[in-house]
């Protein structure tokens, strides 16, 4: 994608617990830009927590809604700082949207830090039957190539 087709926004990607929302809020404040957390937008629009959506409708429906939310934000909020859900990179059309929005930064943290931050958080839906520690290690390894592909920088 050439620079002319990329927007002036900032997109934060990375696994759960890497600090996308916390850092996004800070950066937006410093830059005087709007901050949006795609998961929070989705929950507000659908009137349901992501955990409940996973439980009642399943992950494929969540992924469709996640894509619709991202597309709407990229269209309606150019230039905003956008924190994305950890699995948003799974779809190629989402990765294209992210790069169209602007600079994509991949946040990383070591596995122990991720376990400490999200291991006991029951408000997040389980994504596999592997248990907290196994799930983090497996999905981080699976998704790394996608984060690497979409990102301009990693931190
Ligand atoms: C997910 C990460 C979550 C949320 C959903 C699925 C994932 O976002 O989108 O629970 O597949 O890694 P955060 O990374 O903001 O926790």
Descriptive report:
The structure is a single chain. This protein is α/β, with parallel strands linked by helices. 55% of the residues lie in helices and 12% in strands. It has seven helices and five strands; from the N terminus they run βαβαααβαβααβ. The chain has helices at 20-31, 38-46, 50-57, 59-76, 92-101, 111-118, 131-150; strands spanning 9-13, 35-37, 81-83, 102-106, 153-154. A five-stranded parallel beta sheet has the order 2-3-1-4-5, with helices on both faces. Helix 3 packs across helix 4 (59-76) and helix 4 (59-76) runs parallel beside helix 5. The mean pLDDT is 96. Shikimate-3-phosphate binds at residues 16, 39, 50, 85-87, 124-125, 127. Shikimate-3-phosphate binds next to loops.
């Amino acid at each position: 994608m050439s620079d002319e087709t990329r927007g002036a926004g900032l997109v934060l990607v990375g696994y759960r617990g890497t600090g996308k929302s916390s850092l996004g809020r800070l950066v937006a404040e410093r830059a005087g830009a709007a901050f949006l957390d795609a998961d929070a937008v989705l929950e507000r629009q659908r009137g349901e927590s992501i955990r409940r959506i996973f439980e009642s409708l399943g992950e494929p429906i969540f992924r469709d809604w996640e894509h619709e939310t991202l597309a709407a934000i990229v269209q309606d909020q150019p230039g905003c700082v956008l924190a994305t859900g950890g699995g948003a990179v799974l779809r190629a059309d989402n990765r294209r949207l992210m790069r169209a929005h602007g600079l994509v930064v991949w946040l990383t943290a070591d596995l122990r830090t991720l376990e400490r931050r999200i291991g006991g958080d029951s408000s997040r839906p389980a994504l596999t039957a592997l248990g907290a520690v196994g799930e983090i290690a497996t999905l981080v390894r699976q998704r790394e190539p996608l984060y690497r592909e979409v990102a301009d920088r990693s931190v």
